[in-house]
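Office hours follow-up: a student asked to see two folded examples consecutively, so here they are.
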Amino acid sequence: MQTPPLLLLQLLCFVVLGQSLTSPQDISALKAFKSSIKPNSIPPWSCLASWDFTTDPCAFPRRTHFTCGLTCSSTRITQLTLDPAGYSGQLTPLISQLTQLVILDISDNNFFGPIPPSVSSLTSLHTLTLRSNSFSGSVPDSVTKLNNLDSLDLSHNSLSGSLPKTTYSMSSLRRLDLSYNKITGSLPKLPYNLLELAMKNNYLSGSITKSSFDGLTRLEVIELSENSFTGTLQSWFFLLPGIQQVNLSNNSLTRVDVSKPVKGNSDLVAVDLGFNKIEGELPVNFADHPLLSSLSMRYNRLRGSIPLVFSQKKYLRRLFLDGNFLIGKPPAGFFSGVGFISGSLGDNCLQGCPGSSQLCSPSQKAYSVCKQAYGGKPRS
């Protein structure tokens, strides 16, 4: 393969004239980036240890210096991807000089302090991954100006405060993960091209409103477990056209309304609403979602019987309804051996749940508990 003439000329200039291939502003930014990291946190075998500015960052081949962590296109740095070496320091605001960055990934290290608002200058970014560090402060509003961003992962940090109200303006964003932080407030209006939304284990609160999800026709995965959402999960939620997986377990929801899918069409595969405060009967319309294979509503406050139709679902393979106040006899189809189903119907008020079946473990509630829950003798 022949070297392109322009690159050959650049290499010749570098060797003969001692000129730098890499843009001076990129070199300046890289120096600032390395100097903001504590020297004693840079192992001798790591990528950053090989960053020696007596040579050019984009020179090739990289036999001894800048051996990893960087990708260049012509004279500009387009990718900064650190190894998980335990680097400790702050992310310098001068990172903004790397204006041609497409990927910035410094995950699984020990960066701390705020995310600099100057990241808004990285307008070419497609991927921003700061996962598993110790960043604190709020998610800066300036992040929402990154209109080319496809993936934003700030999970496993110590970010706090509410989400920017302009989050919806990130028109190219397809994957958003802010899980395991300390983010408060309610969900803002979300970017309409999202495919995956993950905000597990935060302090989000309030009800889940249609306005937050308005226009999200492509959203497939919603992971909002371990927050403090309250109120009713309304019927529009499970009618989002692209929805496949939902996890809203470990919240404080009190009711869930489920409608039949439009024209019987639904891609919904898995739903976890366990460990909430949901009252009422088991929503029978879940059974009308043809591809539903996993349903958990364990440890809520459900009453009434288990609809027969759940034992007739072709694809249902996991059903967790334990820890409620369900009564009557469970459908015989669960125990017929025709289609294997795992899960639990234990810790309810059911009658005739075969002790030989793993579905009936743990044992049912004491009769006195069930009687008190129903204000008298539970009826089938």
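And the second, which I mentioned at the end of office hours:
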Amino acid sequence: MSFSSLVSDIAYRNPTRPELRAAASEAGRSYASTAATSVSISGDIKSQLHGGYSHPLARAWQAERQLTKSMLIYPLFISDQPDEETLIPSLPNQHRRGLNKIVPYLKPLVEKGLKSVILFGVPIAPNAKDALGSNADDPKGPVIKAIRLLRRTFPDLFITADVCLCEYTSHGHCGILRDDGSLNNQLSVERISDVAISYAMAGAHCVAPSDMNDGRIRAIKLKLIEAGIAHQVVLMSYSAKFSGCLYGPFRDAAGSCPSFGDRRCYQLPPGGRGLARRAITRDINEGADIIMVKPASQYLDIISDAKDIGKDMPVAAYQVSGEYAMIHAAAAAGVFDLRAMAEEATQGILRAGATIIVSYFTPEFLDWLSN
């Protein structure tokens, strides 16, 4: 006879003795608890997970990597109009700023712990654009002047310069064109690499070519070596930059919409995972110091691939303007809380393998990470 049956039998045979009924009831509960524990132990004890994340700190410990201020790069749109400070309607809370406005804006952010920025020039002056993007490396242009200003004003701020021609070309494409409107890869690489060297010589800590022309990483690295500054300048490649509809607010901000056609022939197709892996491998072999995936949230598998291919390299992810704008729009519509979604999206990017995040949420994160 089992223990539970024995208890029940004693209670049944002594209905007039309450103390036996109480003992039977307590013994039954004890047996049930023991039985449940026995079942649990006899199964796989590793299935018991809740205790590992019942406390907020314990939940934080479950993350493979925690977001820190040093992981963030903040995009800045630098106008060639010194006193401009224009809100970008499609990019909430973001502005185009001239040189006279950029230091007062950045000073409190640097005091909060801002570590790095990436600069995009926005030429607005009449005749500032031509077919060759001649003003991209003009010493009096917005990017070179901003690099020098920020180096003087914020000595500890890490300055990255985006390297592309689309903001400076009259046609809005990312290089020099042939007569049929297609990219001339050879001439584009020569021009892009010259611009990169100009930014590096002006004091940029990092140059980041985003044009996606074949061979531009090798060309830039060779010119950095030739100039004797390869040991001082980080080369960050937009290795896996996908075409798509998430760049609209950026193009509003930078004035870089193509005047005809699109960029699908030199940016990766959204389904091109194999192409992305090949591009990442190529850029590593050509001398990239950091590899980047762009956009971020829709390409978490590519971020994971980048981390797998470049096991010993930093991996950056650019949470692009469209991603940022969508989060803002949904939060404004009451779909979710802005901070909660920004943090959740960023955690996903980190979990996929990125260790550097280019984000328009950087000013907010400087506050959130301090709380």
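Two things to take away from it. The domain at 71-368 is CATH 3.20.20.70 (TIM Barrel). The chain has a mean pLDDT of 87.
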